[in-house]
């Protein structure tokens, strides 16, 4: 690499930074002007928010890595052009080619997809190397795609980025998105996709970058309808929370299914059996029957006195109206309103025929009279009252669940002691899902333009339906791994699961190249995968580096000391460290580590800043640490029906080094220690 060429790139960087400062000044000025000129309060707020967020992003970044790539085109539509690609568009002023092009722009696709076999008009693809603290341009690497190049070669800059030690929360991967990932990131908004991705293949990264891409490409549509990201728990959301803001996107809702459905405090608990029944898709039919079972055929005429008149609608006509509305299959609450307004229309026609003056007050009065009559035929309902009426009453449940749930299943979900009123019911997490189902039968919930569901394999069929209700008119990106399913109801087949998610025809794509877990660890994980009875392809590691070490402790009592030793050793390297153990074993283990002078933060308490984190196996999903000390695999494998899947998750969290410590014998599939 010539010094002069690097100097030239540094000079260009200086120009980019100056341009960014100009953009920043303009944005700041526009914030001031925007606050004065916008026509109404709503536009003023929107404009102000947009400009402020732009000013903030630019203000935080004028000295950041302005670009990570460069494309020199020799042929095709862009022949003779040179483009720099970065996280954000850098403008050179009106009417001039941008100094840096946003990674999401159409031409940037070539940066990710061009290869020696298909150069797409590119003669040279340049990747830039940056140091982080301080941020400085340290070098570059060229691929001469136009001359054929070496199709199998891996860029050193890409390899270094993928292998770098992990510290703190998740970071964006814009500079090194791989072609198979880029295809998913840029898939169209109108179709839904499902990514079956082995551990560390970048599913989460793909989902987050896809959100940023879709917002850039379909800004207007998605600003109106919204993008929602669903993750498995708060620890995971905390871990991924910085990625989208770093990509300039701050308006994406990121939450868990539990939070999305929350209607009030959850103070109840279910037996495993009861939760299993409540999360089963058949509950949807039970709830529908319970709710619509309230609608009865009118048996009395409606008679409404009106001054010297009496309007009358006979039961046959009322029955026809109710039956007609039921056939339309609109939500229950909408149906009631429709029946009401149709009956009022009948009254109006009678009144008009008699020359009665009709005004708004008359219509309201008739509406009240019809509503009172309708209460017996199509009663108003609320979710809590409907569900309590079912779980607290064996006869009502038997009526609604007849032929759907077995008597045993019915008794599993019946309340042993029903509360006095539905208002004092102690709802469980599974009840929240049922309440949402009833709420969805009453009224359609707010929908989103696009929903991204991470760790989707763990959603129950009823949770999937809750997501489906919110994406009925939008599309979804479903991310998951059947092998990492640890919930009792975890999916075993994507097609079934996609059916519950309301997108049975979503395109199913498998990712198999792992960018987290080193080859030595992937080999063990693949052996375990063969035991898991799921139909998913094995992982291939991108990384030849990394280390797997297996140590046998002299009995259970010796495990904490062995763990302390392993952590001390790990502290000698750069990066984050996790001690992962079975949930029940973690607290005593952490206490013993502390006694040995090693402080391990809990997963929720500001763990991002700590070097060592104690992670219960049940919460390890989606997270990664540079060095993992995995304590007693047999104990993790022994925790319930999905213990082996939980172990598979725990085994695949390490970026560079995995220490497996055991006192109990290792399972047969575990390779003997080297
Ligand atoms: N193209 C890439 N360039 C650099 N790093 C990458 C790339 N793809 C993935 N990674 C990194 O690999 C790690 C794993 O990615 P991610 O967590 O998205 O995988 P995942 O498929 O969701 O894993 P899991 O199923 O185990 O949760 C992350 O640190 C991510 O930043």
From TrEMBL:
ATP binds at residues 197-204. The keyword ATP-binding applies. Keywords: ATP-binding, Helicase, Hydrolase, Nucleotide-binding. Residues 176-518 form the UvrD-like helicase ATP-binding domain. The keyword Protein transport does not apply. It comes from the Bacteria. This is ATPase AAA.
């Amino acid at each position: 690499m010539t010094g002069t060429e690097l100097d030239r790139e540094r000079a260009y960087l200086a120009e980019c930074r100056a341009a960014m400062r100009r953009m920043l000044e303009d944005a700041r000025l526009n914030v001031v002007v925007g606050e004065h000129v916008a026509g109404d309060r709503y536009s003023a707020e929107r404009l102000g928010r947009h400009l402020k967020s732009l000013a903030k992003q630019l203000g935080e970044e004028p000295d950041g890595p302005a670009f990570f790539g460069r494309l020199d085109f020799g042929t095709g539509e862009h022949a003779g052009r040179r483009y720099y690609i970065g996280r954000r568009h850098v403008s050179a002023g009106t009417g001039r080619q941008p100094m840096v092009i946003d990674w999401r722009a159409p031409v940037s696709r070539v940066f990710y997809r061009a290869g020696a076999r298909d150069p797409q008009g590119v003669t040279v693809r340049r990747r830039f190397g940056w140091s982080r603290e301080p941020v400085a341009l340290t070098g570059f690497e060229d691929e001469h795609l136009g001359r054929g190049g070496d199709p199998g070669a891996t860029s050193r800059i890409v390899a270094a980025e993928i292998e770098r030690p992990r510290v703190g929360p998740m970071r964006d991967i814009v500079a090194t998105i791989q072609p198979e990932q880029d295809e998913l990131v840029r898939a169209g908004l109108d179709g839904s996709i499902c990514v079956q991705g082995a551990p560390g293949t970048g599913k989460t990264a793909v989902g987050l970058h896809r959100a940023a891409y879709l917002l850039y490409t379909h800004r207007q549509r998605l600003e109106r309808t919204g993008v929602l990201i669903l993750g498995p728990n708060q620890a995971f959301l905390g871990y991924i929370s910085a990625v989208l803001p770093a990509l300039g996107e701050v308006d994406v809702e990121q939450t868990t299914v539990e939070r999305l459905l929350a209607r009030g405090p959850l103070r109840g608990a279910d037996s495993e059996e009861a939760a299993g029944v409540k999360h089963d898709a058949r509950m949807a039919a039970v709830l529908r029957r319970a709710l619509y079972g309230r609608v009865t055929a009118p048996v009395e005429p409606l008679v409404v006195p009106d001054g010297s008149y009496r309007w009358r609608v006979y039961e046959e006509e009322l029955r026809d109206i109710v039956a007609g509305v039921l056939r339309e299959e609109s939500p229950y609450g909408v149906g009631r309103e429709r029946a009401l307004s149709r009956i009022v229309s009948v009254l109006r026609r009678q009144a008009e025929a008699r020359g009665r003056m009709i005004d708004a007050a008359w219509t309201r009065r008739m509406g009240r009279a019809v509503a009172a009559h309708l209460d017996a035929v199509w009663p108003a309902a609320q979710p809590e009252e409907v569900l309590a009426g079912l779980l607290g009453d064996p006869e009502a449940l038997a009526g609604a669940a007849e032929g759907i749930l077995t008597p045993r299943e019915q008794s599993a979900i019946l309340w042993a002691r029903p509360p006095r009123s539905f208002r004092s019911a102690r709802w469980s997490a599974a009840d929240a899902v049922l309440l949402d189902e009833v709420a969805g039968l009453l009224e359609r919930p707010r929908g989103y333009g696009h929903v991204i569901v991470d760790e989707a394999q763990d959603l129950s069929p009823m949770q999937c339906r809750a997501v489906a209700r919110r994406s009925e008119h939008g599309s979804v990106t479903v991310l998951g791994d059947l092998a990492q399913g640890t919930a009792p109801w975890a999916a075993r087949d994507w097609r079934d699961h996609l059916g519950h998610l309301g997108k049975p025809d979503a395109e199913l794509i498998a990712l198999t190249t792992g960018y987290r877990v080193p080859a030595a660890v992937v080999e063990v994980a693949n052996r375990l995968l063969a035991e898991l009875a799921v139909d998913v392809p094995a992982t291939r590691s991108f990384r030849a580096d990394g280390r797997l070490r297996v140590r046998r402790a002299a009995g259970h009592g010796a495990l904490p000391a062995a763990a302390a030793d392993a952590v001390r050793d790990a502290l000698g390297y750069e990066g984050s460290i996790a001690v992962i153990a079975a949930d029940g074993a973690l607290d005593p283990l952490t206490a013993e580590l502390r006694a040995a002078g090693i402080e391990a933060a809990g997963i929720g308490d500001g763990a991002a800043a700590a070097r060592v984190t104690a992670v219960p196996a049940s919460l390890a999903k989606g997270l990664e640490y540079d060095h993992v000390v995995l304590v007693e695999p047999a104990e993790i494998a022994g925790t319930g029906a999905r213990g082996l899947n939980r172990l598979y998750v725990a085994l695949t969290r390490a970026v560079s080094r995995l220490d497996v410590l055991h006192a109990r014998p290792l399972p047969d599939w575990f390779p003997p220690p080297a």
